[in-house]
Write a structure and sequence with these properties.
globular, about 180 residues, mainly alpha
C-alpha cells in the first residue's frame, strides 16, 4: 500500500518521451511542413509558450477532429493529439524542428559558392556615418572655388521630406493639450 501511495501522484515515469513509429511518421510530416514554409522560429516560440497547455491542445484536437477531418486525415490528427498528451512531447517536437531546420540550412549552404572578395568600385559605401561627406555637407566634396555641391553623388543618400521633417501626430485634434497635467 505504501508503494502505491508513493507513486499515486507521480506526474511521469522519468523516461524521455519517444513517439511510436506511426506517431513519428505524423510528426515528420508536420515538421517537414513547418520547415518547408520557414516557420521554425514561430513554431518553436508557440510550442514553448503553450507548453503548460499541451494536454489542453491535445483535447482541442480531439474535439475538433470531426470538423478538421475535412482538411486532414482523422487518424493522423488522433495520433498527433495522442502524442501531445504525454509529458516531454513539446521538447521532442522542438528538437525535431531544430534538427530539420539545421539540416535545411546545412543543405542550403553546402552547394553555395564562397563569398566573393569585395572589389573597390570607387563608389562610397552606404555607411550612414559618412553620409554628410557624400552629400556635400561639411565641405567634403565642394568645388575648387569653395562652393558647396549639394547634389548627392552616385550611391549617396539625401534626406527626403519624411526624414528631415519633425514627427507630427496624424490623429485629429482633440481640443485638449496633451502636455497638460491630468
Amino acid at each position: 500500500m505504501r508503494e502505491f501511495l508513493r507513486n499515486a501522484f507521480a506526474l511521469d515515469d522519468g523516461k524521455p518521451c519517444e513517439p511510436s513509429d506511426d506517431e513519428r511518421a505524423v510528426l515528420d510530416r508536420v515538421v517537414d511542413e513547418v520547415v518547408r514554409r520557414r516557420l521554425s522560429t514561430p513554431a518553436i516560440a508557440f510550442l514553448e509558450m503553450s507548453r503548460p497547455l499541451n494536454v489542453v491542445g491535445a483535447a482541442a484536437i480531439h474535439f475538433f477532429t470531426p470538423i478538421a477531418a475535412v482538411l486532414a486525415n482523422p487518424l493522423h490528427l488522433r495520433r498527433f493529439a495522442d502524442f501531445l498528451e504525454r509529458r516531454g512531447s513539446v521538447d521532442y517536437l522542438c528538437r525535431m524542428i531544430e534538427r530539420a531546420e539545421q539540416a535545411r540550412l546545412g543543405a542550403c549552404c553546402e552547394g553555395a559558392e564562397p563569398p566573393r572578395e569585395k572589389v573597390d568600385s570607387g563608389v562610397p559605401d552606404a555607411d550612414p556615418s559618412s553620409a554628410s561627406t557624400r552629400s556635400g555637407v561639411g565641405g567634403g566634396h565642394g568645388g575648387s572655388d569653395g562652393e558647396s555641391n549639394h547634389e548627392p553623388q552616385s550611391g549617396g543618400h539625401e534626406a527626403g521630406p519624411a526624414e528631415s521633417a519633425p514627427i507630427r501626430s496624424t490623429s485629429a485634434p482633440t481640443g485638449r493639450d496633451d502636455n497638460a497635467p491630468r
